[in-house]
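Translate structure to sequence.
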């Protein structure tokens, strides 16, 4: 049986070893290239161009949000009824507090003015509101006393005529403020040390 050529066998083994070394070098080179690309991409995130683009996107998003907030804030403008109802409920609550202290509702002659100026009734601890505002249509809120003695506060609405279908009134439960608010209720001089200044400024504006 012929013996294999020793030189040929050695050469084959060397070629195989060289192939393995080249493959190992190639794999290591690929790993290094991948690592370098990852570092390069990470650094790119901090480049001035990327930061500038991100800042621009944030500015655009902020502008859109501001516009939406402004739309929400301006919702009351096309729907003044909501604003009027809030004011009517506040007036009804103030009337309830007036009655709690005085023991009776303001008379028709005293009107809503009794909520901000002492009508001379015993027990009055107002003012119960800071000022009497006009309704969204520019007219004063109306006040009357019903035959049963209960108050009737309302706005004449957009047609400016009392007694028509577009009149608005507060929710009935708004007239009953409960008693929780009485805890810590102080005289006007203690609650509003600058009340004289507030009233004088109000009168000057009127």
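Result:
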């Amino acid at each position: 049986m012929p013996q294999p050529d020793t030189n040929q066998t050695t050469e084959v083994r060397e070629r195989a070893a060289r192939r393995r070394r080249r493959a190992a070098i190639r794999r290591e080179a690929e790993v290094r290239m991948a690592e370098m690309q990852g570092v390069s991409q990470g650094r790119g995130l901090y480049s001035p161009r990327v930061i500038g683009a991100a800042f621009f996107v944030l500015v655009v998003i902020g502008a859109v949000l501001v516009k939406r907030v402004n739309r929400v804030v301006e919702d009351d403008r096309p729907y003044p009824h909501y604003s009027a109802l809030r004011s009517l409920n506040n007036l009804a609550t103030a009337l309830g507090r007036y009655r709690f202290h005085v023991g009776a509702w303001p008379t028709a002659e005293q009107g809503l003015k009794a909520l901000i100026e002492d009508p001379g009734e015993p027990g009055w601890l107002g003012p119960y509101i800071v000022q009497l505002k006009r309704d969204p249509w520019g007219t004063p809120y109306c006040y009357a006393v019903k035959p049963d003695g209960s108050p009737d506060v309302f706005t004449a609405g957009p047609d400016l005529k009392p007694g028509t279908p577009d009149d608005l009134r507060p929710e009935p439960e708004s007239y009953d403020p409960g008693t929780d608010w009485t805890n810590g209720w102080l005289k006007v001089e203690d609650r509003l040390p600058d009340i004289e200044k507030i009233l004088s400024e109000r009168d000057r504006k009127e």
